[in-house]
Amino acid sequence: MAAMLDWNDLRYFLAVADGGSTLAAGRALRVSQTTVARRIAALEEVLGLTLFEKRQAGYALTAAGDELVERARQVQTAASGFADAAAAQNRDASGIVRITTQEIFAVHLLGPMLRELHERHPDIMIELDDSQDFRELGEGEADIALRSAYGDIGPGVVGRRLCDDDWTLYCSRGYAAEHGVPHTRAQLRKHAFIGGGGPKLWRAYSAWLHDLGLDDRVIMHHASAIGMMSAIRSGLGIAVLPRVIADADPELVQCVPPKGGHGRVMWLVTHERVRRAPRVRVVIDFLYDKISRHIRMLDERAADAAA
């Protein structure tokens, strides 16, 4: 396989061309003369060309080197322009960004990530909306949404797929130690379940329990996802939770594997009207990277446990 061109070597090429020697180039770049000579040799090897004639008075461009030097300057100018544009976008990345999602994702997934976002971009103010109401991105009710969807994500909405939004049953480690971990429908019938989590979460959750014939095993309802999570951790019972949250919690134990084939996908989305706004692009890029890393960590952990 052919060696790849290291674009950084063009800096050494131009420094020698301008300074007339590896010594002068080293001083300009604040590196050793040996480093400059080594990088020039590496560049010549990759290109298959001799760029300089080594004379007693210093380095002189060959015909090939002279022909390429202006091209190298164009690359240097383009790279500088790229860096300036990126810096300008960072300077322009200020203002309010409104994010909407379910409470359980806002508190347990996004919440821990927002400190680093603030440290990187202190001029961006986040408004995190975890209400039960569905926010219309097209009408400007939010800039970014973390949500699940079946099929089409909506007109004008553009997004990045994160993962299958798998949910299943969890209990606390304390509950498992006292009552055991149920793995079958018959075993589940002998356990207590915690309901609630808010209307949107409860719609999906109650359908889950109904399919398993466990409606009558619910002993408590919580109005919020935070309350439901607190009840599970206290050892009160079992509940259905999203894998992307629960599998990351060391205090929780998965009772049964998630059901496949549900078709529900977790998306990080925005709308065409704001997708190019620097503040929105910065936030959605940051969140996509952080959430994707989180999901990969969970997948690797699950693979290790199954091995």
TrEMBL record:
User: Which keywords belong to this entry?
Assistant: DNA-binding, Transcription, Transcription regulation
Top-level taxon of origin: Bacteria
Q: Which Pfam families match?
A: HTH_1, LysR_substrate
Q: Please state every residue range assigned to the domain named HTH lysR-type.
A: 5-62
- InterPro entries in the cross-refs: LysR-type_TF_proteobact-type, LysR_HTH_N, LysR_subst-bd, WH-like_DNA-bd_sf, WH_DNA-bd_sf
Sequence similarity: Belongs to the LysR transcriptional regulatory family.
Stated name of the protein: LysR family transcriptional regulator
Organism, per UniProt?
Sphingomonas brevis
